[in-house]
Amino acid sequence: MADASYTTQEYDTQLGDYFALMKPRVMSLVVFTALVGLLAAPVSVNPVVAFCSILFIAIGAGASGALNMWWDADIDAVMRRTAKRPIPSGRVPAGEALSLGIALSGLSVMMLGLAANLLAAALLAFTIFFYAVIYSMWLKRSTPQNIVIGGAAGAFPPVIGWVVATGSFSIEAWLMFALIFMWTPPHFWALALFMKSDYDDADVPMLTVTHGRKATRLHILGYTVLLAALAVGTGFSAIGGPLYLAVAVVLNALFLKGAVEIWRRDEAQAEADSYAVEKRVFRLSLWYLFAHFGAILIEAMARPFGLGGW
Q1: Which of 93, 208, 236, 302 is the most buried (most CB within 10 A)?
Q2: At which of 169, 195, 219 does a domain end?
């Protein structure tokens, strides 16, 4: 949790520092998956409504990032991967990050309700609450299941996009949710395998810390098997199609191959090649989600021309 020590410094804050508080890389994934959810829905949306809705969803994602950075400033300061973030590096006061997060949360939820519908706004509000409170304030520091359960926060954007278009839930929206939800643990655990000292130093109960790397490798394999079955199965749903199925088969074969390689390795092998396999699988996981959702988007855009879907 952010402490008072961050409020006694002198700050030279730039506009870019406030933008960095909103985790732009995470925001880009939120925007993309929400847009896919909106465009994959079987209902056309006015372009102005669609643009405004995606904008407010992006602002909501930025609000979540600012609140997360405010709360996690103390552990960010001791982790190499996060030490240069705006608060621990002394560029933004913790109080300003909190104020920004709260203000953007209220703005994004209110405006999404006005631009789209109340159900989408309520779901965005719940997503912000889940990430900032359930994940950041509770799960992250209390259980090795932090990434598993907390992954739901990152899985809601395509559902919000779908609800913007339709005003309701559907199995297709939840399939997109499940795709992100099941992808999150192996994605983050692959990172944790070669960044373990960070979580040790910050006393964060990541699976690598609480159960060891051997157990983490087995968990990566297990979740990847489930993810592959879900991803390929989605190809036969209303949001799937031949292109999506081809992408899913190829990428999940590669992801499964990488997960098996990780599972078979011991720490001596991993350290000998500087965790090359783990880093390769992590990089693949970054492309994995964009490729799957990109294929869903192409299938959706092609359907009006009789080309997408089955």
Answers
A1: 208
A2: 169
Residues 85 and 164 in one domain: yes
Q: Which of 153, 169, 185 is the last residue of a domain?
A: 169
Amino acid at 309: G
- One-letter amino acid at 102 equals I
In angstroms, the CA 133 to CA 157 distance is 17
Q: How confident is the model at residue 9, as a pLDDT?
A: 53
What backbone phi and psi angles, to 5 degrees, belong to 247?
-60, -45
Same domain, 233 and 276: yes
Asked whether the predicted pLDDT for residue 12 surpasses 70, the reply is no
Q: What is the pLDDT of residue 310?
A: 77
| Residues 302, 304: Cα–Cα separation, whole Å | 6
- Render pLDDT for 191-244 as a digit per residue (tens, 0 to 9): 999 986 778 788 889 999 899 999 999 999 999 999 999 999 999 999 999 999
Amino acid identity, position 191:
L
pLDDT at residue 82 above 70? yes
Residue 4 pLDDT level (bands cut at 50, 70, 90): very low
Is 165 found in the same domain as 22?
yes
Number of structural domains found in the chain: 2
- Domain at 118, CATH number: 1.10.357.140
Phi-psi region of 45 (alpha: psi -120 to 50; beta: other; left: phi over 0): beta
Residues 64 and 155 in one domain: yes
Element (H, E) at 80: none
Residue 186, CB-side half-sphere exposure with 13 Å CA sphere: 33
Determine the Cα–Cα distance for residues 215 and 203; give it in Å rounded to an integer.
19
Pairwise CA distance, residues 113 & 111, whole Å: 5
What range does the domain containing 310 cover? 173-310
Q: Does residue 128 share a domain with residue 11?
A: yes
Same domain flag for 76 and 203: no
Query: Distance between CA 61 and CA 59 in Å, rounded?
Result: 5
Q: Does residue 290 carry a pLDDT above 80?
A: yes
The whole-angstrom separation of Cα 20 and Cα 280 is: 26
Residues 219 and 124 in one domain: no
